[in-house]
Design goal:
The chain has 143 residues and is an all-alpha fold. The chain has a single domain, classed as Ferritin (Up-down Bundle), CATH 1.20.1260.10. The chain is 77% helix and 0% strand. It is globular.
Length: 143
Amino acid sequence: MEKLWNQFLSDLVVEYHKLQTFHWYVKDVTFFQTHAKLEEYYDGVNAQIDEVAEVMLMRGMKPKATLKDFLATSKIKEAKAAYVTTPAVFKEVLKDFEYLLDSAVTLKAKADAKNDYLLSAKVDGFIENYSKAIWMLKQSNVK
């Protein structure tokens, strides 16, 4: 279980920085809306990082804590420090959120199989948040 949770934690840390990079480098006619939305997303992911690390510690797991470890473990790739348009940003965000949703569902299933209600309950909110974000991105015709 610890390996899966560390994978999720690493993915969240890289996603946080990726969203922040997009927030800084988006350049488009919809800059103001996109800039604000990306801040909303990275603030949400930032809160999840702390929640995941704390629940891991509550279960006696050792969360990864260095940028080197996060980058080596994450399956999400960093964003480049280059200007990007809103459609490109949200296409990438959609892909990452779908991946994070799948990861959260897997974590829940594994926790349920072990009757670990604390771990199972922790990802419920993540599943709801990613599901809503994905739906909203798709409503915006992001593909």
